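Reopening this one. Same input as before:
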Amino acid sequence: MIKFSGNSVLDESDKAILNELQTEGNLSTVELARRINLSTPATHTRLKRLENDGYIQRYAAMLNYEKLGFDLLCFIHIALQLHQTEQVEKMHKALRKLDKVLECHHVTGEYDLILKVAVKNRQDLEHFLMRELTPLGGMSKIHTSLVLNQVKTANVLPLA
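Same output, byte for byte:
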């Protein structure tokens, strides 16, 4: 058994459920139960507990960017002018509203924020930078990197 944050303890069956759902999130409870060798009601009960306790945040399909016309995946590094809590939280709130921002991470180092952004083409990137991001203000430096090739993309945590 592994004890995680709080008082929750995950046993091997819980970890098996999480491992299966990380790679195939649309499994039926019946199929999930078969794969982890538990009864369907026991699997359902465990699954609901894992959801209620916050181990499973949500279910989503992973889409193919290129097939949907998003040919540029970018990482945008932002240095903020001010680092007071109010200004940082204001920036976080504004960035959450931008649809093209897939991920936003508040980080340490030379830059304060790293954004993962999907755009259709060079013009779409320019529009995003000049008409959506820059007008937010409060930034001292913006550095954009274009992804040439995704070497590894994973959302699977090693729960072993």
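So the earlier flakiness isn't reproducible anymore. For the record, The chain has five helices and six strands.
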